[in-house]
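Re: beginner question about structure tokens

> Can someone show what the tokenized structure looks like for a real chain? I only ever see the sequence side.

Sure, here's an example I had lying around. Input first:
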Amino acid sequence: MSKNPFDFTRFEGWFAGIEKRPLKLGDYSVAGLEDVCVVERKDLPDLIHSLTAHRSIFVNRLRLMSRYPHRLLVITAALSQVKSAYPFAGTHPNRVTQSLIAMLAGLQVPFLCTETHELGEELVASYLYQVHLYHWLETNDQGRFFTDNDL
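And the corresponding structure tokens:
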């Protein structure tokens, strides 16, 4: 689990409960959907470290994530920060950005950049809720739509 984990307590009304336990892959998932849903969270220093010093390990994790129908990398930094010089790292922002784009195009692992940790919490909670909701709709023969011709 990450060093600064998300705290979903303010979204408890969205879920039947929140469990804290190790996952095979990633930082977050939905109970019962761990084999189809994976969310990985990185803050900027961890992302840079993962794409440089631990690149082969991280790329392998991304390859595993790419096999999941629902997969998401959440970066708790604005894209403008990812693209700005890093005073704490000896790598160029373009290298990190191009790695993210390669991950998106080559492995089809989408990423979201959030300006704050709290916004990341909300987006991940909402994503997990939506994954669960669509799964429930499908398993209860409701199709993949909330209303006709809508999302």
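Each token stands for a local structural state, so reading them left to right follows the chain. The chain has five helices and three strands.
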